[in-house]
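Quick start: read one record
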Amino acid sequence: MSIRPSAFLALILWPALAAQERLPEAEALLREAIAANANLPSVAFQAKHRPDTTMLRQMAAQRAGGAAPETELRGVASGDLLQVSNTTQGEELITHGRRTIAREGAGEWCLRRGRTAGGAPQLWYPDPALLFSALAQVKALPVVQRAGGSLDDRPVEILTVTLEGDAARELIFAGALPDPREGFSFSSVVLRAAGGVRVQMPKEDRVVDLAFFVDPVTRNLMRVRARVAARSQGFALAGGGAAVVQVGGGGQVLQFGGRPQPEAEEDEEAAATQPSPAFEDGLPVRKVDPAATDYAHVDVRLAEHGTAKAPELDAKARALLGLPAAR
């Protein structure tokens, strides 16, 4: 089975995707690993999340700064409870059922929905159970490379998957992977600037590269790397209007919408002549398009499969989460 590349893939990312051979045995191994890890009673994790968007790159260029900082997170998923510590920002959140509590440092717990304890919008954070559940719903997980490797001096098999279209969007919209647009892009600014105006979400090209590090004996997923790419496109406002955003208190003025975005031309013949991609730490090495594509990079390491302990909660935290008092 071959996969016809879109213009986005053919011209920007990985021209030789259609030429890659699928590996059925590796796909079966990956399915086994996803199913096994989805049913774990608990797991601990450490993660790194780095946005790399056109907006951040332009802001960095204007202030002569470096790349966007990497956020480090760690936590435990145990049953219905998810605890995540943002060690970079000194914040913590715990989710149980329909309730989420948050705090800053050693401060007081408070109920929050989509916000940090200080009131800022809550950005993406890892949820292993959600990730495995969402992956299990993906109809096709085409493994395009299977390689041996080691992780913490233990042998692993590294399985590489690339998803595009609806499969990629579903992982992102489910929250299993971060949306490069959320919080760090011009598009997220437009969504907020539009206010009560209905915004037509474009069905833009999105591509997800995934590298799974699998223990070949236990089938435990030891590490998951992801690179999420979204091609920058304008948002259409209901009625055909445009959103204009002023940046920096009178500096740059940005307009979104109001005119159709040009489509990239298909160049399948040129795509077919490109060499097969190289791989680095499980992910394909891609040509970066800094002017037109937003990226998000994720690296999640998993440990204590089935044995991770849920955090101890004080009386206030338990009450806010609707849990019975500790005995």
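Residues 51 and 84 are 19 Å apart (CA to CA).
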